[in-house]
Every structure is written in C-alpha cells, then in structure tokens.
Amino acid sequence: MAKKILIIGAVALGTKAATRCKRVNPDTEITIIDQGQFISYGGCGMPFYISSEVDSINELRATSANVIRDPHFFTHVKDIDHVKIRTKALEINPQEQYVLTENLDTGEKEKLFYDELVLGMGSHAIVPQIKGVGLKNITTIAGLEDAEKIRTHCEKGIRHMVIIGASFTAIEIAVGLADMWNIPCTLIKRSKRMLPNLVSSTVSDMIRHDLEEAGINIVAEEDVLEFAGDDEGNVCEVVTNKQRIKADHVILAMGVKANYELAEKAGLKCDPKYGVCVNEYLQTSNSHIYAGGDLIAIKNLISGKEMHLPMGSLANRQGRIIGTNIAGGNPQTGLETFPGVVGTWCMKMHKGTVAGTGLNEDMAVKAGFDAVSINMEQLDRAHFYPEKHMMTLEVVVEKKTRRILGMQGYCADGTAVKARIDTMAAMLQFGKPTLHELSIAEVSYSPPLASAMDVFNTAGNVADNIVTGLGEFIKPAEFDALFEARDSNNYVFVDTRAGQAPLELCKKYPEYWLNIPLERFNEDMEKIPADKNIAFICNSGTRAYECLLKFKRGGRNAVNSSGGMQAMKKRGKKY
Amino acid sequence: MAKKILIIGAVALGTKAATRCKRVNPDTEITIIDQGQFISYGGCGMPFYISSEVDSINELRATSANVIRDPHFFTHVKDIDHVKIRTKALEINPQEQYVLTENLDTGEKEKLFYDELVLGMGSHAIVPQIKGVGLKNITTIAGLEDAEKIRTHCEKGIRHMVIIGASFTAIEIAVGLADMWNIPCTLIKRSKRMLPNLVSSTVSDMIRHDLEEAGINIVAEEDVLEFAGDDEGNVCEVVTNKQRIKADHVILAMGVKANYELAEKAGLKCDPKYGVCVNEYLQTSNSHIYAGGDLIAIKNLISGKEMHLPMGSLANRQGRIIGTNIAGGNPQTGLETFPGVVGTWCMKMHKGTVAGTGLNEDMAVKAGFDAVSINMEQLDRAHFYPEKHMMTLEVVVEKKTRRILGMQGYCADGTAVKARIDTMAAMLQFGKPTLHELSIAEVSYSPPLASAMDVFNTAGNVADNIVTGLGEFIKPAEFDALFEARDSNNYVFVDTRAGQAPLELCKKYPEYWLNIPLERFNEDMEKIPADKNIAFICNSGTRAYECLLKFKRGGRNAVNSSGGMQAMKKRGKKY
C-alpha cells in the first residue's frame, strides 16, 4: 500500500516537499492542506508587486513558464494526490497519526491519517495589541491579500504611508513606494540602528542614508502607542511616545513569529522564542513528523545557538530535503541532512544593496566571542576599468584566533556585493576561516569584474593589519565624535589625500585640518604639531594607513579613520 | 644591521613583496631590479587599453589616486631603498648569496648581495619559430610596449587583424577590436574547442557563438605554418595548413612560459613544464630564495598535480605572503603559507561572461577521476523580477563519491556568474563539497538578486538527480547529433514546451517533432509512438525532466536534452 504523506501548509516548503517526494518515490499518496486561498506563491516578491515592478499578482503565483500554481496544477501536473485549500488543521494527534481538519467554507471536519506528516505552517506577522490597530487601512504584509490591498490603495493615491518596523520587507516596501510611486513614507522603529542584529553602526548609517536619499523619513527610537482614526474608521494618525504622524495607510512590518502552537499542543518539542525544534534530518521530536521553513528554530553554525531565520530560500532548500526524506531517502545516499545556517541575506535598496553573512559584532559578542568588526572601502573592479563601484566590506573577527565570524557589505552594484558575501558564506559553512585564508582566498579575476587584489582579499589584509597591531583604526562615527569635540580634545585631523578637496577643508577648519598627501609625507611629516593628538583620514583608508606607518616609524602614534571619506560619504556625513 | 632583501622583477609580485615587507619590517634594506622600462603595471588591463576602454596607458601604471608607480614612487612614497630598472639579472649564486646584474644602458655589471632573494621574473610570450615571424606588425602581448604598438596601429587603421592563439588575452583583445574599433579579426587556434582545458564542449560552443556574434572569425584546428610579408617587410598574410589569411597586423597570443632558466642554472628545483618549484611558504629549494607569480609551478588542490596559472591576482596574493615572510613573518602568527590553487578564472566577452573553478570534465578524467559534467540553465534572479538573465552552470562531479570537482558558467551578467563561481571556488578550497552540499549551500536571497531556489542550488539538484539515475540526460551536442541522424536512428523528439514555438517546429519536422506540453503530458503521453526512441527537450530542461519521470512511471525510457532550447540558443544552434 502507498505510504500516506500529509503536509500542512502549501506556500513554499510544503509544495516543494510534496513535489520532490513524488518525483523520488511516485508510490506515495500525498495530501496537502492549506487554510489560505492562494498556495505556492513567491511571498518575497510582494514588495516588488506593491511597487509595480512586478505587474500582476499572478506573476508571483506562476511558474517560469507562466502556469499558475493552483491546486489543479499540483494535482494534474505535479501528480499530488489531494490538495485541499481553505482547510485548517485543528489538532495533530501523533499517537494515532492523524490531523483533525476543518473546511473553512463548509465547517466540515475530517481526520486525515498519515504515515509521515510535514509541518509547513510558516509564521504570522506580529501585530501590536494597541489602541486603534483594527482601523481600516492598517494592514500586515503576511500574504497576497495584504499585498493586493496595499497596491490597490497606492493606485488610488496615498499621501502619507507609515510603515511600522524596519524588517527587510518593510524597507523593500518603503523603497518601492518612494522610487516607483513617489509616495512619502515614514518608517518607525524602536531601535536606534538599522538592522541592529545584522550590521554594524557604520553599515547601519549607510542603510539609513540610502533610504533618506530616496526620501524616506526614518523615525528611530520611538514607540508606537496608538492609531487614531477618522469618522469613517480609517486610520489617519500614528501616535508615538514623541509625536503624531499623519497616515492614510499603515503597514505593520514588525517581523514574524513561527506558527508553532499546534505543534506544541501535540507535544512536539518547541523553542518558545523561535519555533519547532528539529534534528538534522528536519524531523521534530516525533520521527514521523517533519518540519521546516519559517516554522522552525534553526541552529546558527557559528554561534551554536538556535535562531529564527524566516526566508523563502531556506524553506525551498529544506522542503526538498524533507521531500527526499519522506520519500524514503535518496535512492543512493539515503536520508538527507540540513546542518544549520550561518545566516546569509541581501537586500536591494534605493542606491545600493546591503548583504551579510555570519554574525555582526554585537551578535558575536553576545555569543561570547572577543570580537572586533573592521570596515573598509575598495572598488569592486580594477580601478582603471571604466565601470566600477566603491564597495564597503566589514569583517567580524575573533581577535585571538583571527577566526572570521561574519562579513557584511554595501555597494551600488548589488550582485558585486552579493558575490563577496556568498563567497564568505561558503567559507563559513565549510570551515572556520581565518583572516589569512580570506587574504589568500582564490576568487576569479579579470579587470572588468574584479581587482587583482580583490576587495574581498583586501578586507582580509586590512583586518589582518589591524588585529596584528600594524595600524590603529577608528570607526567613522568615532572620527565624527573626535571632530565634534575638537575644541576640547587637542586633536588635529591630518588629511593625506592629494588634490583640491583637502585644501578646502584646511580653509574651512584652519586650526584643525591639515593636508599632507602621502606623496609628500616623508618630507612634510614634521609639520604635524608635536603637542597634538592625531587622527588620519584619506579617501578610502589606504593612504592614511601608509602615512600612519611612516608616522609610527618616526616614533609617534595616531589613529586612522577606517574607510576614509568614502565611508563618510556613504553615511551621508559631510565635512 | 638591516637584513638585505633583493627582488628580481617589479611587475606585480616583486613590488607587492617589497612594499609589504617594508610595512611589516621597516628595518630591511630592499633592492628591486627589473630589466624593463615600465614597472608595476596592470598587465591584465592591456586588452582594455588596446580597445580604448582604458584611455591612457598611464592608467595601467597609476595607483587609484592617479600617481604613476615609477621608481621614484617606490623609493619616495613606498620607502623601498633601491629600485633599478633596465637592469638584468645574469646569474644567481645561492652559495655566496649574490645576483650578478647588468645595466642594459651602460653595460655595467654588479654583484648584488642578499640575505633573502625573491624571484619574480614572470613569464614570456610563446613565439613560434616559423618563417616570417620577424616581419613588422607581428607583436606579442607581453608588456606595455606591445600594447602601445597595437593600439597605435588600431588608431592608424587596421583592415585585417589576425590573432594566433585563443588565450584569455587573445579573446579579450579580439572582443575589444570588434566591439570598440569595429576591426574584423580572425582568431586562429590549434584545438577544436575554445578553452579546452577549462570548459566543456557545451560552454565552448557558447564562447564560440558569443565571439562570432561580435563578428570575430574563428579558425579552429589549423596550424600556422608561416607569415608572408610585403615589399616593405610588413606582414600581409598568415599561411595555415589549410588557407592563406590576409593580415596587416598579427598578435601572437599563444600563451606564456615561466622565465625559470636563471633559477634552473642556479640549481633551484624546477618543473620543466611549469616553472620554479616552491613549498607552501613560497620558498624554492633554497630556503633563502622565494618565488611566486607567473614564474612558479603551482599545486592544483583538486588534482594534486602541478600546473601553471599565470594570473595577476595570484601574483598579488603571493607577493604579499612573500613580503610578510621575508620580513620575518607576521609579528603575531609567524610565516605565512600559500597551499595551492583550485584554478578560478573569469573572462568578459561580447554578450556574456564565462567563468570557472576547479576541473572541467576532461581535466578531471585526466587526473584519474570517474567524472561526469552536467550543464543546466536557470535565471539568475526571481523569474518574476523584471531584470534577469539566463545563466548556464556546469557541474563536474566524481560519480561514485558525488564529490564536486569543478564548476563553469556563462551568463550575460558577468558579476552574477562570478558570484556563483567564486562561491564554488570557496567550497573547493575549504572542503571536498558534495552535490548535496551544493544543493543546500546557503547563498543570499532576495528576488532582485537571486531565486528562492537559486541557480547555484539548482545546479546541485540537477546533477544530483542525474547521478542518482532519476533523469537520463544528453548534452546539447548529443541532441544535435541524434537529430542530424533522424532519418536512420528511429528517434522522435518530444518538445514539452507550451506556446507557439514548438508548434512551428512540428510543422517544420512533421515526422520527427512532437509537442506535448508538460501541462497536458498525463493525458497525451500515449500519443508518443511506442516503437520509437524518444528524446525530450523543453525551454531549460526542467519541464522535460518532469515529463521524463512521468514517462518512466509509464514504463518507458527516454533522454532529456540538458539545458533545453536555452542552451541551444546560447550555442547558436537553431532548430
């Protein structure tokens, strides 16, 4: 008799598991249920549908050959035995191996028995329980219905959009509204920094500046207290602890939480913060019940700690593994495994793309590492090649062992920064890479695509120099702070660039700004006042580093502003 | 007393070693000699100077801050003690630790003593010893002087350019001449395939088609026998074993060979085919003599065999290591190592970029692996995102262990294919990745930059299916051959695409071409004649794979043309 497979949830993981299982082992009877109307859609594409970059919502539901992935598609093309939409799972009974379901249209209840059960219930949008949250035109962004509501409202005309939260989705929607609809948009967030668990303060500043350049108003460190409505019950204001902000639409994009209640009630082991616990075969604490995607807690391979990483790409990869495993395993190699994640992501914004992998400095410290994070700037291609972009890379290192714990980056060419971050992601997945291994990492080179000493390798070199103690660095914000306090801290700022720009700063700040280009440094170094503290800055950090070394050979010390004026510019800081 | 460092060669490796050494340990006395006029230039940029994408030759000699890297720069800015150009090394004496040198302008000879010696003599262009090779307007592409000659001749006007060889440089120059100067260019090569040691026949076909689309005339499998000249001693024809080809300029780009004669004479261990042998510290068989860059034989970490990989990026990375080591090692971690290479490269052409890492199928078989190479096609971004490109990836696998031995790719977006190849390069450097590890490799995802199941992961899935025996595949050229022989081999070709294109092919080949779209396959599969051999094809290979599985469940077998019509199109093959 065919093995009975039951799958709850049909957005990403569930359908992938079902179709893979059928291909590996056609001798299975597969049932998928989902409580929604739409199944198997590209949820990550919603911001681009809202922005109108994606024309029709059906594009998010179609295969690359333009066939809509509806229940008929799964039963007739993918040979899945039963697909039941608008069908909710009410109870999982692992002892008797059934799931009690309810048809949301007819109210009919049914016990579906299984040999293997797959949980792909995903996550739900976090909704704050505050006054006015039920007003009209306040939407989450949890599914296609939400996306349609927002897009329709955009088409009718929105004057004031407020987005609560600054998740990837929140930021992508804000950028889309600004770039494609020209709708003024306010983004309200609790934390001070952008993506505080993913990037450094330096890259956070770059994200903020990128969004502000798009005309997005960022309100940080404020709490939303309530929503005010008009006479017709439409939202019209967002009230924070500091101000009232006009809004004729509000999007709640405060992140998501795993839908693990049913699993918990069934006695499956769950992490209260992150979701259902699974082993490396993606089995829950009951070996006949598999789970994956947004629903599960997942192990971070660097920190060793559990985390929640709700991403469509993970759901797809895990869905395939579950599909293979419920089919009885790969015919040649048996059960397949998913060891965990290092945490790799990217997000296109207005002018640039930000991407990262592994831990940022804060998360590394939290995980118990004695970590430092070092930012740098270099062109992504040969400097003599006409097309090129200044790339920011930031390396997070454990000081003592020189082990790399993470890397983040920002660049106008999104694919170029993705290339470096994905390469580091592979290094983090396959080893415990050191700074030296980053310095010599073999990446492809040709002037139209890379530098001979690629920005990726240079990031290793820069961090290696700093950890070794060859060059003392300060972060851009630390340079800002030193400059702010210049009347009292006895600092002089030595600009080692050539050209016109530093001369203008000398004129502007005659007592504080000194210009000694690298090329004249040996001769002119003695002009640097002996009784002052010195901070160096140049274009990208390299020239100032060389001057710093010369200065040290002369018996003095100083600091160098990492990333130089290029990092300042990307942060929107003008001197 | 300061340690005396002597460095022979100042193009890439030598200057990098010198400047790094000085930064780590200023208490060294460093002398660099070079027989040329120009030092420290971006040799890999020459094709882009010839094409005029790079305006002035000085851009290849300048830092990113536009300072020319001449001897004065190295002595005054980089604090290198002595830089002697037009100075040739005549003899290395490892016993007495000196190098005998000759000033090429004055003829003066001098013994330069050293504590540590660095060999960075690079390589020379291979010049065929055939009749007429000394004619005017026949140039190698070994240095800036050559590049200037070619560019000057382009500016004067060339009607017929012939390039002998099909190295990266040869192809880059041909593309530049075609795209930027509109100069008709013939590329003559001995082998049948393009880059035969680096890519498969499928990717080779794509390279050839890309170049032909640029108007480049590719003459393969011919031997150049002699060059004919006019009355003034200018080259005017290239004579091969099959034809005479007009030429008013000829570029010899037949590859390079390491300049290891001096090292060999000094008794240092050399590989006659590849160059000077070094250990992981980049020391030659004499521990006071280091070598790197184009000069050395280097270990391929996958095949375990020595090879020659003359690339500016390797010279730079190795130069830094040598610089650290001759300085006495990293102050914290000691001597640094360079374990070898996996062989990673990329090249921008006319419409697309080709890139690769590790072994291709032929090299893998030569190295003793039971290998198979599997090509596939998928978009580089979410299929619903407006900007996207069809990417080719080819995975080379050891069948029994499923270990990945290499990956090559082709895509209109060069950085997108570089991203995937560099990620695989990291996997190859840091482990022995399997197909399963490729399937679940964690790469960053967002619709504007990747697919939820990224082309990188899908390449693993496709290869996994084939190695497991789920889907029988044939290479595009094998499909071509089956179709060519259709009058005698009893084959029918089943096109599983929807839409108009397959219907037209059915009309064109009524006896041989059948259209059964995936969506109707369950119902219409019985129309496939029972007494015929069957080859499936679709747009990219995916739909045909699903049909193939359905067909097998029905008790029959068939083959699937990998990469489908997309691979055919990139190869310039029309049906």
From TrEMBL, chains A, B:
Gene3D superfamilies: FAD/NAD(P)-binding domain, Rhodanese-like domain
Pfam families registered for this protein in UniProt: Pyr_redox_2 (PF07992), Pyr_redox_dim (PF02852)
Keyword terms of this UniProt record: FAD, Flavoprotein, Oxidoreductase, Redox-active center
Cofactor: FAD
Taxonomic superkingdom: Bacteria
Domain Rhodanese: 514-573
Family: Belongs to the class-III pyridine nucleotide-disulfide oxidoreductase family.
Protein name, as recorded: FAD-dependent oxidoreductase
Species whose genome carries this gene: Taurinivorans muris
